[in-house]
Amino acid sequence: MNRRILPILGVVIALPTLALVAQARVPELLSAVAEPPELLEGCGDVPEAVALAEELRDRALRIERYMASIDSRKADLMQAETTLRERLAELRALKGAASARRDGDTEAVRGDIDQLIAVYDQMKPAEAAAILTNLPADFAAEILVRVRPETGARIIAAVEPRQAALLTAQMGARSVRNP
Questions:
Q1: DSSP of 85-99
Q2: Are 164 and 133 in contact (CB under 8 A)?
Q3: In angstroms, rounded to a whole number, what is the distance separating the alpha carbons of residues 37 and 44?
């Protein structure tokens, strides 16, 4: 007779469970509830059961607080990520603008230098030599390197020998630095 009751009890227990699964209420079964009213029903006089129920309630409350904290941190992280992405886009735009401005400035400087070189190419060698000897040696060497070779040779020939040697050394050093 006991063997006949077991299958019946199994069906009685399995049917409500299957009904809950069919209704997709599994998450409700697995979620923590801080104060289940039926938890202590019939066990109020057993101190171990009361202590266990209180411990479970405390744990459920801690889990709920922890989950709320995680959700809050998750929201904070998403906000921070959004802010960082916006800032990164701003910085990339600024970098592009700065690069374009720098490229424009570099082109302007190159244009100015090319114009200066053209002026020295058109000057008489003695006049150019007089001016170059009063300029810093590295700047004068840069100009001499960029003028036409025959103009540069005439200018160096017009400079006093000691200054010419210094300018020639600067020109050589420049060529070594910028191969």
A1: HHHHHHHHHHHHHHH
A2: no
A3: 12
Q: What does DSSP assign to residue 34?
A: S
Contact indicator for 151, 121 with CB cutoff of 8 Å: yes
What span, in angstroms and rounded, lies between the C-alpha atoms of 140 and 155? 11
Structure tokens of 16? 């409500």
The pLDDT value given to residue 1? 52
Residues 6+ apart with CB under 8 A from 175: 145
- Model pTM score: 0.41
- Sole residue written with tokens 């399995």: 14
CA distance 128 to 2: 122
Cα distance between residue 35 and residue 57, in whole Å: 6
- Condensed to tens digits (0 to 9), the pLDDT of residues 118-171 reads 888 888 988 888 888 888 888 888 888 888 889 888 988 998 889 888 888 888
Q: Which of 109, 177, 115, 104 has the alpha carbon at shortest distance from 146?
A: 115
- The amino acid that residue 70 corresponds to is I
HSE on the CB side for 59, CA within 13 Å?
8
Burial of 80 (C-beta count, 10 Å sphere; 0-12/13-18/19+)? exposed
